[in-house]
Amino acid sequence: MQEHRKYCSQLLVLLVLFIISLYVVPIMGKNGNGLIEVDVGVILHADDHMVGKVSQTCISMALEDFYALNQNHSTTRIVLHKRDSKGDVVEAASAAIDLLKNVQVQAILGPQRSSQAEFVIDIGSKTQVPIISQATSPSLSPADNPYFIRGAQNGFSQVESLTAIVQAFGWREVVLIYEDTDYGRGVVRFLTDSFQGINTQIKHRSVLSLSASDDHILQELYKLKTMQTRVFVVHMLPFLASRFFTKVKQAKMMNKGYVWIITDGLTSLLDNMDPTIINFMQGVIGVKPYVPKTSQLENFKVRWRKRFRQENPDVDIFEMNVFGLWAYDSATALAMAVGRSGIGVSKFKKPVAKENLTDLAAIGISEMGPRLLQSLKNIEFNGLSGKFHLLNGQLQPSSFQIVNVIGKGDRKIGFWTKKYGISKHLSLRRSKSYSTNKDDLGAIIWPGESNVVPKGWEMPTGEAKLRVGVPVDGVFKEFVSVRRDPQTNAVIASGLCIDVFEEVMDHYLPYAVPYEFIPFETPDGKKAGSYDDLVYQIFLGKYDAIAGDVTIISNRTRFVDFTMPYTESGVAMIVPFDDDDRKNAWIFMKPLKMDLWCTTGFFFVFTGFVVWVVEHRVNEEFRGPPGKQVGMIFWFSFSTLVFAHKEKLISNLSRFVVIVWVFVVLVLTSSYTASLTSILTVQKLKPSITDIRDLIQRKEYVGYPNGSFVEGLLKNAFDTSKLKNYSTLEQYDEALFKGSKNGGVAAIFEELPYIKLFLSNPKHCAKYTMVGPIYNSAGLGFAFTKGSPLVLDVSRAVLNVTGQDVMTRIRKKWLGEGATCAEQDGAKVISDSLTLDSFKGLFIVAAVASFSALILFLSIFIYENWDTLASHDSSIREKLIAIAKTFNEEKDNSSYASKRNPATGEGMAVPAVATTDCPQSPATSDSQLVERIFSHDERLSSTETSTLILETTKIVEGNEER
């Protein structure tokens, strides 16, 4: 037993020693002072690339500063192994494989170019080694590449700031110019979507290769110069940008009227560019990440300049840039993560030995990589670049600084933040909302040393005038008319629409726009198509604009952009006045709609029935043969129509019902009388048609103007065979005069401006009137090519014209003073017939009164005859028969009898069964009383009869004694 325990103890000691030999001994052997050395690779283009040189010095200084501040607490040290990518994708990938296979690095800093980083990131993912890179292309995402840590702001983060600048100055078109690399292409899609969100169109995209010749760049610029757009967004790095802006200056496109906006990749590196190139970029606007100025940053810059000059004595121009600061903070973050994760010696888990393994497959998988990645993905601290916060492997964006290239560098003109938008200062009130106001920016010197904000477009150099299409052969010449000079064949356009267009273009635009009118006609001078066809010509590129009576409707906005409308619009009907109803034999039925007639008739019968039910047992006038009683139901109710009912009512319930019903009848008769009077006396002022549904139900013919969009509206509601088009006002008059049954139409559908012009003629306004509008449209406007920058300025000018006396003068010139017909002033486009909706409340009150009386009466009746209903000796059928007979019998009503037969009167009837309180009439003998008692119910038995006679005799004797 002791030997067994001794053997186990020896095994345990050996196991502990084995573990120590695996971890402690190698560590101690690696560094004599007991520190753990962590191998980290650095892949930068440092030979002839300024960003790489700056970043390399920053990374070395970052580790030195970190371990100098944490020497008492840190048990690990990062050992850098530097490799040069030489600006090549293959070289960068080879360097990564070398570092992973031969050095077994646990992390790699770099590369900084997106194309190189893409390959290295894939290698890092396969070997589970974190790759910390300053590649900004949005195509590289930590979400898709779990071992990719972006130590720089995503290129997408600047898109909103660029969009805010364009929106602030109201530019409607921009041209994107970018380099043909992953870096250049990565942001384009996001810029396009963002500009579309503010209704700014990407007019053209110009892609330049890094190897493009100077002649090719110049040729591309000349092509851009022939376009209208003068706002250019440039997304490229300094290598290509230096050559590009040299050619921009040569093409004279850095003059007044041009706008050049550069992205953060170029703006951040302006200080490292040749002063000659900066001189070519005067007036350019750019955005770059904002780096707050701190004493720590200023001290570092002093130390860095000294260090950089020592390491790169042959470099003349060097300045710190944000990529160097990000490299410094990335190295610091890596050092912090290494210390926190407590990782040990670099070690890779080798794959199972197989033949013909590639170098990448033979590297294996890092055992420490996943632990280091978790420590690194969400690290946060205040670095030299500001707040350095990695969230899920992505550096969170900060504010952007907006700069203007002036003199030897850039000058701050404002800031952009995601919360407040554009502002002059970062310290803002909390109540401030998001803003894109250009006044929140500082003074800007634009290209050409101009302080005037460029409008963003100019007339292209390849076209002399704006091509303006005008319709021909329109129905209303007062709005637009086209003719040619017989001697010069020059186009002469006139009309209200033409005058407004000329007023806007010639006097209200802040700049001159030459234009010419081009008729939309066939070679023989005829109309070439409908207004929809004319609008589509802009989309096809035949015209740049349209000046004419073109209505703004939704389906046309797919092809063109419209200005603000300069007239009201909408579609209505022109219909004749109607006075034929006065000759109708059944005109007395017209005041009430059929539903009101039926409801009124029903309530007449129902009210009479309720009164009969309540009065039947107590009132002689509501008794008698069945035919008489049915007649009484109809007679009594309908007699209230003329208040001629003479029957006296006994029950308070029936009196209540009749009082309510008489009030309803009073209101109905008064309304009927007023409506009939109106029909017979004011009928001339009523249109023949008041609802489009009447036209559809009657299958009437209707008209519309030839070539108008109104045809499409009518085809959705009418049969095509019922539609007729007309081209002149005389045809309108003739068709309406004939009517639908005589080869004309019952109504003509037209737009409001034309209807008002038609009815302004005294000959027409006395016979016709307008009904509607039945369809609302935006009005008449001028059409321009989709995304045209002219639309905004012309819309402003239209508002100025329509809001002043000049529009009144133009209207009077072409449309006159307007209609002065008394018939138009008195026309009522409403229905004279009363509907059930107007009297619902009255009928509800009458129904409640009648039902309440009926229910109360039935409740009392059932209560009085409950013994009969509760009897167990009879069947349901027998009970119902008994109840019906009881209801049919006349009810004893002493108080009513006494009122009808005074005590002293002769011939006063005596009740069948007298009570002790009711003395026998002296006019009635005892024998007569007995006879009436016997006749009351022949079914009484002899015993019951004897008893009844005896009781009756006693009552009579008692009465005689009294």
Q: How would you explain this protein's 3D organization?
A:
- It is built from 34 helices and 30 strands.
- It is α/β, with parallel strands linked by helices.
- The strands form six sheets. Strands 2-1-3-4-5-15-14-13 form an eight-stranded mixed β-sheet, sandwiched between helices. The chain has an eight-stranded mixed β-sheet with strand order 7-6-8-9-10-16-17-18, sandwiched between helices.
- Helices cover 44% and strands 15% of the residues.
- It is flat and about 130 Å long.
Gyration radius, rounded: 50 Å
Distance between the termini: 139 Å
How many helices in DSSP terms? 34
List unreliable stretches of 5+ residues: 16-30, 825-831, 894-962
**Mean pLDDT over all positions:** 81
Q: What summary fits the major beta sheet?
A: 8 strands, mixed
Share of residues in helices: 40-55%
Tally of extended strands? Answer: 30
Secondary structure class reads: alpha/beta
Strand order of the largest sheet: 2-1-3-4-5-15-14-13
Q: Can you give me a brief rundown of this structure?
A:
Helices cover 44% and strands 15% of the residues.
